[in-house]
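Appendix C reproduces, verbatim, an entry submitted by the partner laboratory led by Prof. M.T., so that reviewers can inspect both the input and the predicted structure.
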Amino acid sequence: MMSPTGDVTGGGGGSCGDEHRPEGTDTNPAFSALLEDSAEDLYENAPCGYLSTLMDGTIAKINTTLLGWLGYRREELVGHRRVTDLLSVGGRMYYETHLAPMLAMHGEVGGLALELRGANGSRLPVLVTSVVKTGPDGTAQLIRTTLFDATDRRAYEQELLRARRDAEQARESADRAREDADRERDRVQKLATTLQRSLLPPELPQVPGLQIAAYYHPASADEVGGDFYDLFPLRGDAWGFFLGDVSGKGATAAAVTSLTRYTLRAAAVYDPDPISVLDNLNTVLHHRYRRDEPRFCTVVYGSLTPTDTGFGLTLATGGHTPAVLIRADGTTSLIEAPGGMLVGAFPTATFTTVEVQLLPGDTLLFYTDGLTEARTGGRERFSEEQLRHHITTLGSVDASTLIAALTELLTAFGDGVDDDTALLALSIPSTEGPRP
Protein backbone atom coordinates (compact mmCIF):
# COMPACT_ATOMS: atom_id res chain seq x y z
CA MET A 1 0.00 0.00 0.00
CA MET A 2 1.04 3.64 -0.47
CA SER A 3 1.83 5.76 2.58
CA PRO A 4 0.62 9.36 2.85
CA THR A 5 4.10 10.53 1.99
CA GLY A 6 4.26 8.42 -1.12
CA ASP A 7 6.47 5.65 0.30
CA VAL A 8 5.67 2.08 -0.66
CA THR A 9 4.86 0.15 2.51
CA GLY A 10 4.57 -3.54 3.23
CA GLY A 11 3.14 -5.69 5.99
CA GLY A 12 3.87 -4.60 9.49
CA GLY A 13 4.10 -0.97 8.41
CA GLY A 14 7.85 -1.22 7.54
CA SER A 15 9.22 0.91 4.69
CA CYS A 16 10.13 -1.07 1.61
CA GLY A 17 13.50 -0.07 0.27
CA ASP A 18 14.59 2.34 3.09
CA GLU A 19 17.89 0.50 3.27
CA HIS A 20 18.65 1.54 -0.33
CA ARG A 21 18.09 5.30 0.17
CA PRO A 22 21.01 7.45 1.52
CA GLU A 23 20.44 8.52 5.08
CA GLY A 24 19.01 12.01 5.46
CA THR A 25 17.70 12.42 1.88
CA ASP A 26 14.16 13.05 3.11
CA THR A 27 15.25 15.77 5.52
CA ASN A 28 18.04 17.43 3.37
CA PRO A 29 16.68 18.52 -0.01
CA ALA A 30 19.99 20.25 -0.92
CA PHE A 31 21.86 16.97 -0.62
CA SER A 32 19.22 15.28 -2.78
CA ALA A 33 19.70 17.95 -5.41
CA LEU A 34 23.46 17.27 -5.44
CA LEU A 35 22.81 13.61 -6.09
CA GLU A 36 20.73 14.52 -9.12
CA ASP A 37 23.60 16.66 -10.63
CA SER A 38 24.14 15.36 -14.16
CA ALA A 39 27.48 14.37 -15.68
CA GLU A 40 26.81 16.77 -18.54
CA ASP A 41 26.39 19.67 -16.15
CA LEU A 42 29.57 18.68 -14.32
CA TYR A 43 31.45 18.68 -17.65
CA GLU A 44 30.06 21.94 -18.95
CA ASN A 45 30.37 23.98 -15.76
CA ALA A 46 33.40 22.41 -14.15
CA PRO A 47 35.84 24.81 -12.43
CA CYS A 48 38.36 23.96 -15.16
CA GLY A 49 38.33 23.93 -18.93
CA TYR A 50 37.76 20.74 -20.93
CA LEU A 51 38.79 20.39 -24.56
CA SER A 52 38.69 17.38 -26.88
CA THR A 53 40.44 17.47 -30.25
CA LEU A 54 41.03 15.10 -33.11
CA MET A 55 44.59 13.91 -33.58
CA ASP A 56 45.19 16.69 -36.11
CA GLY A 57 44.18 19.24 -33.48
CA THR A 58 40.65 19.99 -34.79
CA ILE A 59 38.41 20.98 -31.90
CA ALA A 60 35.74 18.32 -31.37
CA LYS A 61 34.32 19.33 -28.01
CA ILE A 62 34.76 22.21 -25.58
CA ASN A 63 33.01 22.94 -22.30
CA THR A 64 31.15 26.09 -21.32
CA THR A 65 33.77 27.09 -18.75
CA LEU A 66 36.54 27.30 -21.35
CA LEU A 67 34.25 29.08 -23.82
CA GLY A 68 33.53 31.67 -21.14
CA TRP A 69 37.24 32.17 -20.44
CA LEU A 70 38.00 32.73 -24.13
CA GLY A 71 34.85 34.63 -25.14
CA TYR A 72 33.94 32.33 -28.07
CA ARG A 73 30.66 30.72 -29.10
CA ARG A 74 30.71 26.94 -29.41
CA GLU A 75 29.80 26.96 -33.11
CA GLU A 76 32.78 29.21 -33.85
CA LEU A 77 35.22 26.57 -32.68
CA VAL A 78 33.87 23.03 -32.87
CA GLY A 79 34.71 21.48 -36.22
CA HIS A 80 36.12 24.78 -37.53
CA ARG A 81 39.24 25.65 -35.53
CA ARG A 82 42.28 23.82 -34.33
CA VAL A 83 43.69 23.92 -30.83
CA THR A 84 46.69 25.87 -32.10
CA ASP A 85 44.30 28.67 -33.14
CA LEU A 86 43.57 29.23 -29.44
CA LEU A 87 47.24 29.58 -28.47
CA SER A 88 49.51 32.59 -28.43
CA VAL A 89 52.43 32.62 -30.84
CA GLY A 90 54.79 31.32 -28.19
CA GLY A 91 52.25 28.76 -27.00
CA ARG A 92 51.69 27.54 -30.56
CA MET A 93 55.43 27.04 -31.11
CA TYR A 94 55.73 25.13 -27.83
CA TYR A 95 52.71 22.99 -28.67
CA GLU A 96 54.08 22.03 -32.07
CA THR A 97 57.67 21.43 -30.97
CA HIS A 98 57.14 19.84 -27.55
CA LEU A 99 53.58 19.00 -26.51
CA ALA A 100 52.41 17.28 -29.73
CA PRO A 101 55.56 15.11 -30.07
CA MET A 102 55.34 14.14 -26.38
CA LEU A 103 51.70 13.10 -26.83
CA ALA A 104 52.64 11.03 -29.87
CA MET A 105 55.45 9.29 -27.96
CA HIS A 106 53.97 8.86 -24.48
CA GLY A 107 50.23 9.34 -24.91
CA GLU A 108 50.07 11.93 -22.13
CA VAL A 109 51.63 15.13 -20.80
CA GLY A 110 50.93 16.93 -17.54
CA GLY A 111 51.44 20.26 -15.82
CA LEU A 112 52.62 22.22 -18.86
CA ALA A 113 52.25 26.00 -18.88
CA LEU A 114 50.73 27.55 -22.00
CA GLU A 115 49.09 30.81 -22.89
CA LEU A 116 45.67 30.98 -24.60
CA ARG A 117 44.49 33.84 -26.75
CA GLY A 118 40.90 35.00 -26.25
CA ALA A 119 38.47 36.19 -28.91
CA ASN A 120 39.24 39.82 -27.99
CA GLY A 121 43.01 39.27 -28.12
CA SER A 122 43.41 38.92 -24.37
CA ARG A 123 45.85 36.35 -23.02
CA LEU A 124 45.11 33.69 -20.44
CA PRO A 125 47.86 31.64 -18.78
CA VAL A 126 46.81 28.03 -18.18
CA LEU A 127 48.24 24.75 -16.89
CA VAL A 128 47.54 21.92 -19.32
CA THR A 129 47.23 18.16 -18.87
CA SER A 130 46.48 16.07 -21.97
CA VAL A 131 45.91 12.35 -22.58
CA VAL A 132 45.33 10.43 -25.80
CA LYS A 133 42.12 8.33 -25.98
CA THR A 134 42.56 5.16 -27.97
CA GLY A 135 40.05 2.77 -29.49
CA PRO A 136 39.68 -0.99 -28.82
CA ASP A 137 42.36 -1.68 -31.42
CA GLY A 138 44.79 0.80 -29.78
CA THR A 139 44.38 3.42 -32.46
CA ALA A 140 44.57 7.01 -31.23
CA GLN A 141 41.19 8.70 -31.58
CA LEU A 142 41.08 11.86 -29.48
CA ILE A 143 43.21 14.12 -27.34
CA ARG A 144 41.46 15.04 -24.12
CA THR A 145 42.84 18.14 -22.41
CA THR A 146 42.15 19.68 -19.01
CA LEU A 147 43.07 23.34 -18.52
CA PHE A 148 43.37 25.26 -15.25
CA ASP A 149 43.34 29.04 -15.04
CA ALA A 150 46.86 30.03 -13.93
CA THR A 151 46.29 33.78 -13.80
CA ASP A 152 46.80 34.01 -10.04
CA ARG A 153 49.75 31.64 -10.21
CA ARG A 154 51.30 33.63 -13.05
CA ALA A 155 50.81 36.84 -11.10
CA TYR A 156 52.43 35.21 -8.07
CA GLU A 157 55.34 33.93 -10.16
CA GLN A 158 55.77 37.34 -11.76
CA GLU A 159 55.73 38.93 -8.32
CA LEU A 160 58.40 36.46 -7.20
CA LEU A 161 60.43 37.22 -10.31
CA ARG A 162 59.99 40.94 -9.74
CA ALA A 163 61.02 40.53 -6.11
CA ARG A 164 64.02 38.48 -7.19
CA ARG A 165 65.00 41.08 -9.79
CA ASP A 166 64.58 43.83 -7.22
CA ALA A 167 66.71 41.84 -4.76
CA GLU A 168 69.36 41.23 -7.42
CA GLN A 169 69.32 44.89 -8.41
CA ALA A 170 69.56 45.88 -4.75
CA ARG A 171 72.44 43.45 -4.27
CA GLU A 172 74.15 44.74 -7.41
CA SER A 173 73.62 48.32 -6.22
CA ALA A 174 75.02 47.38 -2.82
CA ASP A 175 78.00 45.68 -4.51
CA ARG A 176 78.60 48.74 -6.68
CA ALA A 177 78.26 51.01 -3.66
CA ARG A 178 80.69 48.80 -1.73
CA GLU A 179 83.12 48.81 -4.65
CA ASP A 180 82.78 52.58 -4.94
CA ALA A 181 83.33 52.89 -1.20
CA ASP A 182 86.38 50.63 -1.42
CA ARG A 183 87.79 52.67 -4.29
CA GLU A 184 87.07 55.89 -2.45
CA ARG A 185 88.66 54.52 0.72
CA ASP A 186 91.73 53.43 -1.27
CA ARG A 187 91.87 56.87 -2.86
CA VAL A 188 91.56 58.58 0.51
CA GLN A 189 94.18 56.31 2.04
CA LYS A 190 96.61 56.95 -0.81
CA LEU A 191 95.96 60.67 -0.54
CA ALA A 192 96.41 60.58 3.24
CA THR A 193 99.61 58.53 2.92
CA THR A 194 101.00 60.86 0.25
CA LEU A 195 100.11 63.95 2.26
CA GLN A 196 101.53 62.43 5.44
CA ARG A 197 104.81 61.65 3.71
CA SER A 198 105.03 65.22 2.51
CA LEU A 199 104.93 66.37 6.14
CA LEU A 200 107.84 64.17 7.18
CA PRO A 201 111.44 64.22 5.95
CA PRO A 202 112.04 61.46 3.38
CA GLU A 203 115.20 60.59 5.30
CA LEU A 204 117.19 62.15 8.08
CA PRO A 205 120.67 63.52 7.39
CA GLN A 206 123.79 61.89 8.75
CA VAL A 207 125.42 63.76 11.61
CA PRO A 208 129.07 62.89 12.24
CA GLY A 209 129.48 61.16 15.58
CA LEU A 210 125.73 60.73 16.09
CA GLN A 211 123.32 57.90 15.33
CA ILE A 212 119.78 59.00 14.47
CA ALA A 213 116.60 56.91 14.10
CA ALA A 214 112.96 57.92 13.66
CA TYR A 215 109.60 56.28 13.13
CA TYR A 216 106.06 57.47 12.40
CA HIS A 217 103.13 55.22 13.40
CA PRO A 218 99.74 56.27 11.91
CA ALA A 219 96.69 55.43 13.99
CA SER A 220 94.44 55.53 10.92
CA ALA A 221 95.09 54.92 7.25
CA ASP A 222 92.25 57.29 6.29
CA GLU A 223 93.26 60.44 8.14
CA VAL A 224 96.35 62.60 8.14
CA GLY A 225 97.79 63.03 11.60
CA GLY A 226 99.44 66.08 13.07
CA ASP A 227 102.65 64.54 14.42
CA PHE A 228 105.94 65.68 12.92
CA TYR A 229 109.72 65.64 13.35
CA ASP A 230 112.81 66.86 11.50
CA LEU A 231 116.56 67.34 11.82
CA PHE A 232 118.56 69.84 9.76
CA PRO A 233 121.92 71.66 9.71
CA LEU A 234 122.42 75.13 11.20
CA ARG A 235 125.40 77.44 10.98
CA GLY A 236 128.83 75.93 11.52
CA ASP A 237 128.73 72.41 12.96
CA ALA A 238 125.47 72.91 14.85
CA TRP A 239 122.26 71.06 14.09
CA GLY A 240 118.62 71.78 14.85
CA PHE A 241 115.84 69.28 15.42
CA PHE A 242 112.23 69.24 16.55
CA LEU A 243 109.37 66.86 17.26
CA GLY A 244 105.76 67.76 17.98
CA ASP A 245 102.05 67.16 17.69
CA VAL A 246 99.43 69.49 16.18
CA SER A 247 95.90 69.45 17.61
CA GLY A 248 93.28 67.72 15.48
CA LYS A 249 93.45 65.52 12.41
CA GLY A 250 92.73 65.71 8.73
CA ALA A 251 93.45 68.36 6.13
CA THR A 252 93.35 71.29 8.58
CA ALA A 253 95.81 69.57 10.91
CA ALA A 254 98.03 68.84 7.91
CA ALA A 255 98.01 72.53 6.96
CA VAL A 256 98.99 73.51 10.52
CA THR A 257 101.71 70.84 10.52
CA SER A 258 103.15 72.11 7.26
CA LEU A 259 103.13 75.71 8.53
CA THR A 260 104.71 74.61 11.81
CA ARG A 261 107.54 72.66 10.18
CA TYR A 262 108.56 75.40 7.79
CA THR A 263 108.21 78.10 10.43
CA LEU A 264 110.48 76.18 12.81
CA ARG A 265 113.10 75.68 10.11
CA ALA A 266 112.99 79.32 9.00
CA ALA A 267 113.06 80.65 12.56
CA ALA A 268 116.02 78.40 13.46
CA VAL A 269 118.03 79.65 10.50
CA TYR A 270 117.29 83.25 11.47
CA ASP A 271 117.97 82.74 15.21
CA PRO A 272 118.86 79.20 16.43
CA ASP A 273 118.16 79.99 20.08
CA PRO A 274 115.46 77.43 21.07
CA ILE A 275 113.33 79.94 23.00
CA SER A 276 113.42 82.41 20.09
CA VAL A 277 112.41 79.62 17.70
CA LEU A 278 109.35 78.70 19.78
CA ASP A 279 108.43 82.37 20.32
CA ASN A 280 108.45 82.88 16.58
CA LEU A 281 106.26 79.80 16.01
CA ASN A 282 103.80 80.90 18.72
CA THR A 283 103.40 84.31 17.04
CA VAL A 284 102.83 82.81 13.60
CA LEU A 285 100.28 80.19 14.72
CA HIS A 286 98.30 82.54 16.94
CA HIS A 287 98.14 85.25 14.29
CA ARG A 288 97.16 82.81 11.55
CA TYR A 289 94.39 81.01 13.45
CA ARG A 290 93.11 83.51 15.99
CA ARG A 291 89.99 84.28 13.89
CA ASP A 292 89.35 80.64 13.02
CA GLU A 293 89.12 77.62 15.22
CA PRO A 294 92.12 77.84 17.56
CA ARG A 295 95.04 75.71 16.46
CA PHE A 296 98.01 74.91 18.63
CA CYS A 297 100.70 72.29 19.06
CA THR A 298 103.06 70.75 21.54
CA VAL A 299 106.67 70.76 20.42
CA VAL A 300 110.19 70.22 21.64
CA TYR A 301 112.93 72.06 19.78
CA GLY A 302 116.63 71.55 20.35
CA SER A 303 120.04 72.53 19.04
CA LEU A 304 122.95 70.09 18.86
CA THR A 305 126.58 71.10 19.15
CA PRO A 306 129.49 68.65 19.14
CA THR A 307 131.82 68.73 22.17
CA ASP A 308 135.06 67.02 23.02
CA THR A 309 133.19 64.26 24.84
CA GLY A 310 129.99 64.00 22.80
CA PHE A 311 127.21 66.50 22.05
CA GLY A 312 125.70 69.35 23.99
CA LEU A 313 121.96 69.84 23.61
CA THR A 314 119.83 72.84 24.46
CA LEU A 315 116.14 71.93 24.60
CA ALA A 316 113.06 74.17 24.74
CA THR A 317 109.69 72.55 25.31
CA GLY A 318 106.27 73.93 24.50
CA GLY A 319 103.80 71.79 26.45
CA HIS A 320 105.39 68.57 25.20
CA THR A 321 106.03 65.26 26.94
CA PRO A 322 109.49 65.02 28.53
CA ALA A 323 112.28 63.23 26.69
CA VAL A 324 113.77 60.03 28.09
CA LEU A 325 117.55 59.85 28.57
CA ILE A 326 119.07 56.37 28.60
CA ARG A 327 122.62 56.42 29.90
CA ALA A 328 125.29 53.99 28.79
CA ASP A 329 124.73 51.90 31.91
CA GLY A 330 121.00 51.45 31.06
CA THR A 331 119.60 53.83 33.70
CA THR A 332 116.85 56.19 32.56
CA SER A 333 115.68 59.67 33.53
CA LEU A 334 113.20 62.25 32.24
CA ILE A 335 114.46 65.49 30.70
CA GLU A 336 111.92 68.15 31.63
CA ALA A 337 111.77 71.87 30.97
CA PRO A 338 109.07 73.02 33.44
CA GLY A 339 106.79 75.90 32.48
CA GLY A 340 106.72 75.40 28.75
CA MET A 341 103.28 76.44 27.42
CA LEU A 342 101.27 75.20 24.44
CA VAL A 343 102.46 76.85 21.24
CA GLY A 344 99.91 79.01 19.41
CA ALA A 345 97.20 78.95 22.09
CA PHE A 346 97.93 82.45 23.52
CA PRO A 347 99.29 85.74 22.12
CA THR A 348 102.38 85.34 24.27
CA ALA A 349 103.76 82.17 25.80
CA THR A 350 106.53 81.27 28.21
CA PHE A 351 109.18 78.74 27.31
CA THR A 352 112.18 77.50 29.26
CA THR A 353 115.30 75.60 28.27
CA VAL A 354 117.29 72.73 29.72
CA GLU A 355 120.85 71.67 28.93
CA VAL A 356 121.78 68.03 28.33
CA GLN A 357 125.17 66.45 27.76
CA LEU A 358 125.04 63.38 25.57
CA LEU A 359 128.02 61.09 26.13
CA PRO A 360 129.22 57.94 24.37
CA GLY A 361 126.73 55.10 24.88
CA ASP A 362 123.90 57.52 25.77
CA THR A 363 120.58 57.64 23.90
CA LEU A 364 117.91 60.36 24.01
CA LEU A 365 114.30 59.54 23.04
CA PHE A 366 111.64 62.06 21.96
CA TYR A 367 108.08 60.89 21.38
CA THR A 368 104.52 62.16 21.00
CA ASP A 369 101.69 61.20 23.35
CA GLY A 370 100.21 58.60 20.99
CA LEU A 371 102.65 56.19 22.64
CA THR A 372 101.82 56.94 26.28
CA GLU A 373 98.08 57.20 25.62
CA ALA A 374 97.81 53.84 23.84
CA ARG A 375 95.41 51.36 25.43
CA THR A 376 97.07 48.14 26.56
CA GLY A 377 93.81 46.44 27.56
CA GLY A 378 90.35 47.86 28.14
CA ARG A 379 90.65 51.46 29.32
CA GLU A 380 94.17 51.15 30.77
CA ARG A 381 96.69 53.50 29.18
CA PHE A 382 100.40 52.89 28.63
CA SER A 383 101.90 55.44 31.04
CA GLU A 384 105.24 57.23 31.09
CA GLU A 385 106.26 55.02 34.01
CA GLN A 386 105.50 51.90 31.96
CA LEU A 387 107.46 53.34 29.05
CA ARG A 388 110.52 53.92 31.23
CA HIS A 389 110.20 50.43 32.69
CA HIS A 390 109.97 48.93 29.21
CA ILE A 391 113.06 50.86 28.10
CA THR A 392 114.94 49.80 31.24
CA THR A 393 114.41 46.15 30.35
CA LEU A 394 116.28 46.80 27.10
CA GLY A 395 119.43 47.83 28.94
CA SER A 396 121.93 50.05 27.14
CA VAL A 397 120.57 50.60 23.61
CA ASP A 398 121.48 52.73 20.62
CA ALA A 399 118.98 54.83 18.64
CA SER A 400 118.21 52.19 16.01
CA THR A 401 117.68 49.38 18.53
CA LEU A 402 115.46 51.57 20.70
CA ILE A 403 113.25 52.71 17.80
CA ALA A 404 112.95 49.11 16.55
CA ALA A 405 111.81 47.96 20.01
CA LEU A 406 109.24 50.76 20.33
CA THR A 407 108.00 50.10 16.80
CA GLU A 408 107.36 46.48 17.78
CA LEU A 409 105.59 47.69 20.94
CA LEU A 410 103.27 50.01 18.98
CA THR A 411 102.47 47.24 16.53
CA ALA A 412 101.59 44.92 19.42
CA PHE A 413 99.11 47.50 20.75
CA GLY A 414 97.08 47.09 17.54
CA ASP A 415 93.80 49.01 17.70
CA GLY A 416 94.78 50.29 21.12
CA VAL A 417 96.75 53.11 19.46
CA ASP A 418 94.18 55.91 19.16
CA ASP A 419 96.54 58.68 18.10
CA ASP A 420 99.45 58.95 15.70
CA THR A 421 102.90 58.56 17.22
CA ALA A 422 106.21 60.09 16.19
CA LEU A 423 109.50 58.79 17.58
CA LEU A 424 112.97 60.36 17.30
CA ALA A 425 116.08 58.95 18.99
CA LEU A 426 119.64 60.31 19.12
CA SER A 427 122.59 58.31 20.41
CA ILE A 428 126.35 58.50 20.54
CA PRO A 429 128.13 55.25 19.72
CA SER A 430 129.80 53.68 22.69
CA THR A 431 133.59 53.78 22.83
CA GLU A 432 133.56 50.26 24.26
CA GLY A 433 133.59 47.20 22.05
CA PRO A 434 130.42 45.34 21.21
CA ARG A 435 128.69 43.72 24.18
CA PRO A 436 128.73 39.91 24.30
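The CA atoms of residues 323 and 366 lie 5 Å apart. Additional entries are available on request from the coordinating office.
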